[in-house]
Recover the amino acids of this structure.
């Protein structure tokens, strides 16, 4: 197999930060190579180095043939139509005019954009934009195709189509590099470069890595006790990783440890996943400090903490949220799942009273927050998707400010802040400006600021977006602990596997709520002879296809 | 440079201009609005000055002087009988000046020694006050001459000056302002047009995809300059047309010299915008910088209103790096005097140097990488 690109000892620094640290690898033509890691792991920098957009500080890169590159933001001209975009890139790559019609026809057919030639690129859906970006990167049939996070903002159906397209290309001999923060995507690659903080943790077929944890993965049927089981098992020294998966708890045991025994629960061995193996590559962290107990929130008479009734939000003639109804019980973790742009954040903002509804009713604790704002918001914690703390205030100043505006003062304030600094490991960063924190700590600080005043209801908008799997587990430990104390938690996510941690889920697609239920109930909807044990993604795809045909 | 790639870039730019009309607004509507607003608003002439004439005794002589004031296009005259009314009116801002013709007006004029009329001026606006004084004196002198001739005498003044004003015989300040204004407007539109476009590509992420293709620096640069050059020159033509038709400014030079010097200036302005855009990579910042860096110096230091040669030496020297200074001189010369080569060539040369400087700097800052 020919080598498409060779990296030898490649390093890249931006000021004091080492973005890419001494990476050596050879990527083959005709293969799909996954560049896998959390945000800030160095994926984009490595992509840009390979595309020749950045020059390495150390080492060298040698490319064999032409490169097609699709940056994270597609590189499409939104005010140009589909075919104008294609023609532009064809001309820029000096494609012979005589060949163009045939190539365009093939690419349009391949990307499923046939019939949309005259549509402006800006008016395409996320998935279609991604496919057009891919088509534009393919006009000159490159020998190496670099795709920077192509599955961000893409619904699961389009994502599957993209993967199919990419594998087809590999069969034709193109080398494909696909960067992603979704660990489940790693399993679809021929080869994986696993990045963490600029360093290469693993190179090779993903199965090679998952094989290492073979025989160490188990599922405990937890039922109603699953949170307790998860909490107990995660503290055991022989358990490397423990997380909630639907009604069960998934365990990865330490090397050589015997299968776990949990009183009163059924334990069964399961095949390992890529994420299980990834966790074992990361350094094991000390036990996560827990939040101190708090007063239990008063349970509303009907037991419902948050209720959305026929919520609609229009932006001009675009319907962002369309007739969404659901109810979140007190003490429940409720997840809103959907691709970027589906309407999750808009629903959130309406519930919190930050955005007026076009029609319908949004209630938190029995109150419409758009009208009963002040009292209602005191019982509410909100962590927005975008980093919304003051970047030029220090960690301590941010904590002071946010506890202050929620009315904490004196000894209570000092104690609460001390607890937050301790629980979220912010102590070493007390004097650091929030804007200069590493991403994981920014998210920790944001969560701390949202929960300091002990809210009864917590709205977390993409809280774990961009953090590594360990920080994600830490977040979920805290979220679980708060739910156990009776706090109602609403969380949005576009990580399908993360949705398994929730008690109940609502799946949002194109502004509509297309499914509602526990993760296991939703998965069961997709069960068929072909897929006896469907994943949440299988279910999502089935639901979307059903929604589109009806 | 690859012709097909260049053409593709220009076609793309034209399509974007057609879809997103903001460039068209900047090129055509902005100059029009500014020309009409500043053209009508800023005038160094005083016309229709509100003048009160107090006539304490309406003798035939006095009435004929009032008629002389009325006939002047400079004044809008209000006739009063009592000086108190006039003074109160001036305090209230109703009159910019007051001319007092007392009871003894006839007698004083007859003797010709003592001041026969008294003039009060509102000095809050010194410029208008000075003009008013001049105009009142003019009417007065003319009337005296007329009276003398009517009486069969000739008015003898110790010295008589015969003034001829060259280039702008009507002394219309607008004729002098409009060419300068066109230069200022072209600075603004030229710079803003390009200041936004490269920044926009960075903001939307298309620049990253673009530089990953085989496109060269020269193609990028020319591909951006050429479409906006055409657009900017269109705006320029429109502005000249408005100057000629709406404001009646004469064009005494030849059109081709005007086109040539404007082209040079347009390249300088567009390159400055490109440089700002390339460095800022953010539309908001680029827009702000363009206004401050292009418009302000052009307005203050170009000689459009304020003559740099009468400024302190260091300001005068500073103004010499402002391209607008040379273009204002060229335009004023072309419009009011004609093709005066000794003025046009050196200034064109300066424009070429400045344009080349900005182009070179933009060229240097246009990188085929993200660093």
């Amino acid at each position: 197999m020919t080598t498409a690109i060779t990296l030898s000892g490649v390093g890249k620094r931006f000021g004091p930060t080492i973005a890419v640290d001494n990476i050596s690898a050879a990527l083959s033509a005709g293969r799909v190579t996954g560049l896998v890691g959390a945000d800030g792991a160095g994926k984009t920098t490595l992509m840009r180095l390979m595309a020749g957009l950045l020059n390495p500080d150390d080492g060298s890169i040698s490319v064999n043939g032409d490169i097609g590159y699709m940056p994270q933001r597609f590189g499409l001209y939104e005010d140009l139509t589909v075919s104008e975009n294609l023609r532009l890139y064809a001309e820029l790559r000096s494609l012979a005019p005589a060949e163009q019609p045939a190539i365009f026809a093939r690419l349009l057919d391949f990307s499923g954009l046939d019939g949309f030639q005259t549509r402006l690129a800006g008016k395409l859906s996320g998935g279609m934009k991604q496919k057009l970006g891919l088509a534009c990167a393919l006009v000159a049939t490159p020998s190496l195709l670099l795709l920077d996070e192509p599955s961000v903002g893409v619904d699961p159906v389009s994502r599957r189509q993209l993967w199919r397209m990419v594998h087809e290309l590999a069969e034709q001999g193109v080398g494909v590099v696909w960067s992603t923060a979704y660990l489940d995507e790693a399993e679809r690659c021929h080869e994986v470069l696993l990045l963490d903080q600029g360093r290469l943790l693993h190179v090779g077929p993903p199965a090679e890595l998952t094989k290492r944890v073979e025989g160490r993965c188990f599922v405990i049927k937890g039922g109603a006790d699953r949170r307790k089981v998860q909490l107990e098992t995660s503290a055991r020294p022989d358990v490397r990783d423990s997380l909630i998966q639907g009604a069960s708890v998934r365990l990865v045991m330490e090397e050589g440890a015997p299968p776990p025994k949990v009183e009163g629960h059924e334990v069964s061995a399961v095949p390992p996943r890529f994420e299980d193996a990834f966790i074992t590559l990361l350094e094991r962290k000390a036990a996560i400090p827990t939040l101190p107990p708090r007063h239990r929130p008063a349970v509303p008479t009907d037991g419902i903490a948050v209720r959305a009734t026929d919520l609609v939000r229009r932006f001009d003639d675009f319907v962002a949220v369309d007739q969404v109804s659901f109810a979140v019980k007190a003490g429940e973790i409720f997840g809103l799942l959907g691709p970027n742009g589906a309407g999750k954040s808009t629903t959130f903002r309406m519930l919190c009273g930050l955005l007026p509804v076009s029609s319908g009713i949004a209630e938190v604790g029995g109150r419409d927050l758009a009208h009963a704002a002040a009292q209602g918001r005191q019982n509410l914690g909100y962590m927005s998707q975008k980093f919304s703390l003051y970047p030029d205030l220090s960690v301590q100043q941010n904590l002071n400010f946010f506890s202050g505006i929620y009315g904490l003062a004196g000894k209570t304030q000092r104690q609460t802040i001390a607890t937050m600094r301790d629980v979220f490991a912010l102590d070493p960063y007390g004097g650091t400006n929030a804007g200069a924190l590493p991403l994981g700590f920014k998210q920790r600080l944001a969560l701390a600021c949202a929960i300091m005043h002990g809210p009864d209801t917590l709205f977390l908008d993409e809280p774990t977006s961009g953090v590594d799997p360990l920080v994600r587990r830490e977040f979920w430990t805290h979220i679980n602990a708060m739910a156990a104390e009776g706090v109602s938690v609403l969380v949005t996510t576009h990580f399908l596997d993360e949705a398994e941690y929730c008690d109940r889920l609502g799946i949002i697609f194109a502004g509509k709520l297309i499914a509602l239920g526990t993760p296991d109930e939703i998965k069961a909807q997709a069960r068929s002879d072909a897929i006896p044990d469907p994943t949440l993604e299988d279910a999502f795809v089935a639901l979307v296809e059903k929604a589109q045909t009806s | 440079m690859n012709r097909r790639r260049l053409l593709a870039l220009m076609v793309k730019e034209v399509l974007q201009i057609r879809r997103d009309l903001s460039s068209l607004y900047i090129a055509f509507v902005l100059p029009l609005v500014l020309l009409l607003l500043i053209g009508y608003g800023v005038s160094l002439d005083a016309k229709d000055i509100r003048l009160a004439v107090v006539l304490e005794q309406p003798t035939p002589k006095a009435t004929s002087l009032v008629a002389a004031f009325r006939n002047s296009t400079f004044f809008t005259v209000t006739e009063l009988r009592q000086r108190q009314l006039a003074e109160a009116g001036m305090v209230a801002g109703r009159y910019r000046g007051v001319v007092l013709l007392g009871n003894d007006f006839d007698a004083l004029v007859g003797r010709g020694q003592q001041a026969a009329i008294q003039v009060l001026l509102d000095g809050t606006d010194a410029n208008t006050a000075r003009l008013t004084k001049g105009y009142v004196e003019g009417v007065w002198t003319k009337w005296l001459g007329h009276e003398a001739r009517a009486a069969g005498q000739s008015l003898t003044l110790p010295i008589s000056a015969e003034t001829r004003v060259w280039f702008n015989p009507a002394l219309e300040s607008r004729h002098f302002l409009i060419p300068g204004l066109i230069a200022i407007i072209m600075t603004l539109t030229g710079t803003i047009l390009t200041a936004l476009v490269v920044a926009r590509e960075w903001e939307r992420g298309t620049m990253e995809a673009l530089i990953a293709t085989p496109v060269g620096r020269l193609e990028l640069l020319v591909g951006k300059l050429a479409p906006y050059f055409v657009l900017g020159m269109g705006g320029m033509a429109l502005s000249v047309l408005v100057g000629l038709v709406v404001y009646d400014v004469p064009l005494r030079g030849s059109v081709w010299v005007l086109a040539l010097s404007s082209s040079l200036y347009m390249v300088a302005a567009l390159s400055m915008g490109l440089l700002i855009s390339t460095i800022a990579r953010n539309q908001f910042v680029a827009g702000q910088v363009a206004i401050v860096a292009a418009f302000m110096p052009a307005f203050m230091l170009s000689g459009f209103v304020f003559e740099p040669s009468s400024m302190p030496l260091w300001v005068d020297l500073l103004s010499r790096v402002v391209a607008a200074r040379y273009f204002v001189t060229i335009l004023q010369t072309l419009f009011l005097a004609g093709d005066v080569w000794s003025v046009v060539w050196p200034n064109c040369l300066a424009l070429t140097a400045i344009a080349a400087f900005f182009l070179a700097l933009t060229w240097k800052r246009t990188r085929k990488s993200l660093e």
In short: Chain A is about 30% helix and 25% strand.
